[in-house]
Amino acid sequence: MSARDLVMSPLRVEHLTKRYRTADRRFLEAVSDVSFEVQAGECVGLLGPNGAGKSTAIRCISGFYPTSSGRILIGGVDVHTDPKRARQILGMCSQEDTLDSDFRVLDQLARHATFFGLSGAEGVRRGRELLERFGIADKANELIESLSGGMKRRLQVARALIASPKVLVLDEPTTGLDVMTQARVLELVSGLIAAYGTAAVYVTHDLAVVAGLAHRIAVMYSGLFMEEGAAETLLREPVHPYTRRLVQSTPSLHTRTALVGIGGSPLNPKDRTDACPFAPRCDYASDACIERLPSLDVLGGGHRVRCARAGEILEAVAAAGAAAGDGVWSAHTAHDDSALVDVRALCAFYGENEVLHGVELSIGEGECLALVGESGSGKTTLGRCISGLHVGGATGEIRFGGSPIPLRPAQRTEDVRRAIQYVFQSPYASLNPRHRIGRSIAMPLEVFGLEGGKTRERVRELLARVNLDPSYEARYPSQLSGGERQRVAIARALAAEPRVLVCDEVTSALDVSTQASILELLRELRHEMHLTILFITHHLPLVRAVADRAVIMRDGAIVEQGSAESLLDNPQDVYTRELISSTPVLG
C-alpha cells in the first residue's frame, strides 16, 4: 500500500452485503450490494429510516460485523483480513452508550488512546484538549455516571477523535443534544475533516445537520442505496420519490409549513421481493416498479438513483421546480383564559443542589407549549415535576385544573396520575426488555382499570395509531429499532387517555419522515382529545412546526417566552438569539 493510496482513498466499500438468518429460518438481507468511496477530506452523509440498514453498514465498515459478501478497505487494508491494523486508523462513535462506568472521564480517553499506540502522557494531553474543546473540561476527574446525556454523547465523540483517525465513522453522534452543543460538535468534526484530510461517514436522520456537513449524501431504504449524489444537488433537486418525501418532512426554522409524513411503514428487508421496496408508499409507483427492482443508475455528475421513473421525475422537476413542501396549518390555541397547568415559584433540588429557580409558567387547555434549552438547562426536571416523576426535593406550587396538586408523586391521586402522562426521551430505558410490546402497552390499561375486557383489541388499536403494525404486540423491545420503540412508548402513554402529555425529546431518535408522522399524530390528538402538550425539545425548527407558545430555559430559569412565531422571528434575549444562530438549516 502506497502513501498515495492512503491519501486518495481512505475508505472503499465494494458490493457490501450483510445477511442474517431469522427465527423462521429465512434470510434477512439487511444491506444489499452497497458500494461507495470516501475520499480524504470528504464527509458522506448516510440517511434513511429506522431499519434501513445504515447502522448495520457502518458496523460492517468498522469491523464489528462480518460481511456476508463484498470487501471493505480502510487505507487499503481489508477490514476482515487485517482488522487490528484497519481499526488503528479508524475512529468510531456508535449511537449506543458504550462508555465504561468504572473509569473517570479523562482516564477513559487516555486508556482508549493507548489502543492506537499513543503513550499515556500523550493520551492525557489529547484528552484534556478535547474535553476543553467540547466544553466539559471541568468533568475530567468525575465518574461517567455524573454526566448528563448530552455530556456523555460529547465524550463519545471525543473518544472517537482521540487519535486523529484517517477514517471517522459517526452513528447519530448529535442525537439528543441541544442545538448549541450540537453546533459545537459539528464544528469540531468539520474542522477535523478539513484540517487532517479525514474521510468521514456520518449516519443521521436529520437532513438539516447533514446539509451543513456532508459533501455527498447517500439515501438508504430497506437495505438498498436508493439515491446518492452531491449534497447540494440532492437536497435542492431530489430525484427519488423517497428522498423527495424526506425533504418535505423536514421542519423549517424560518417558515411554518405542513410537515408531510409518509403513509405506511418502511419495508422490513426480510419481506423484500424483486419489486421496488418503496413502491407501496410511492406516489409515482407503476407496474414497472412492481415487476422488478430498478437498478442504481448514474444520471451524471456522480449522481445515482434507483427509480424506474427517474427520467419522468427529472422532467417534472425541470418544468415545475423542486418544491420542498406546501401548505400552511394554523396553530390551535386555548379556548379560554384559564390554565390547565399552572406552575408557580417552582424550585427543584437534587440533594442540596438547586436546579430550578423559581420557575413560573402556565399551559392552557388544548395548547402545545414548547420547552427549549441546552442539556442541563432544567427542561426535563421541570417536565418531571409537572408529571410527578421528580425524585428530588421541590418547593413552590403546581396547580392542575385550578386546584393545587402535591409535588410528591406518592401523594397524588390516581386521577391526577392518569391525567398527566410522560413519554421518555430514551425508549431503550423506558421499555422493560423482558416484556412483550403488548404487555408494556397493556399495563396502564390494567393499572387504571381501562381495559374493559378488551385489552388486546385496545393494544392493537394503539399500535396502529402510532403507525406500527398490530402484530408488533408479540415482539420484544430488542426486536424493534429505536424509532419503533419510541412509538411504542407514545402508545403506552396514550393508553391512559391522558389530558396532558409531557413529551421529552420524543422525536430525537426518529428519522424525519417518521418524525413528521408522529407530529401529525400529536396534532390530531390535540384536536380530537383536546389534549394539552408540553413538548420538551432542543430542536428549534420543531417549535415552529408544532407549538403555539415557546419557553426558553437556561441554567434552571426561564429567560424568554412568547408565541412560537414571535419568539423565533424576533427574539429579545441574547441566549435565544445564540440558540437560533446555532441551529442548522436545510438549504
Task: Describe the protein's topology.
Layout: H1 3-8, E1 11-21, E2 27-38, E3 43-47, H2 54-61, E4 69-74, E5 77-78, H3 83-87, E6 90-93, H4 105-114, H5 120-133, H6 149-161, E7 167-171, H7 179-196, E8 199-203, H8 207-213, E9 216-221, E10 224-230, H9 231-236, H10 241-248, H11 287-291, E11 297-300, E12 303-305, H12 310-320, E13 339-350, E14 353-364, E15 368-372, H13 379-387, E16 394-400, E17 403-405, H14 414-419, E18 420-423, H15 427-430, H16 437-447, H17 455-465, H18 482-494, E19 500-504, H19 512-529, E20 532-537, H20 540-546, E21 549-554, E22 557-563, H21 564-569, H22 574-581
Parallel strand pairs: 3-8, 3-9, 6-7, 7-8, 15-20, 15-21, 18-19, 19-20
Antiparallel strand pairs: 1-2, 1-4, 4-5, 9-10, 10-12, 11-12, 13-14, 13-16, 16-17, 21-22
Helix pairs in contact: 4-5, 16-17, 16-18, 17-18
Give descriptors for this structure.
587 residues; alpha/beta; Rossmann fold; eight-stranded mixed β-sheet; 4 domains; globular; 35% helix; six-stranded mixed β-sheet; 23% strand; 22 strands
What does this structure look like?
The protein has 22 helices and 22 strands. With 587 residues, the protein is of the alpha/beta class. The protein folds into four domains: 3-98 and 161-236, Rossmann fold (3-Layer(aba) Sandwich), CATH 3.40.50; 99-160, no CATH class; 241-320, no CATH class; 339-430 and 499-581, P-loop containing nucleotide triphosphate hydrolases (Rossmann fold). The strands form four sheets. The chain has an eight-stranded mixed beta sheet with strand order 6-7-8-3-9-10-12-11, with helices on both faces. The longest helix is centred in the first third of the chain and has 18 residues, at 179-196. Mean pLDDT is 85; it is low at 1-7 and 321-337.
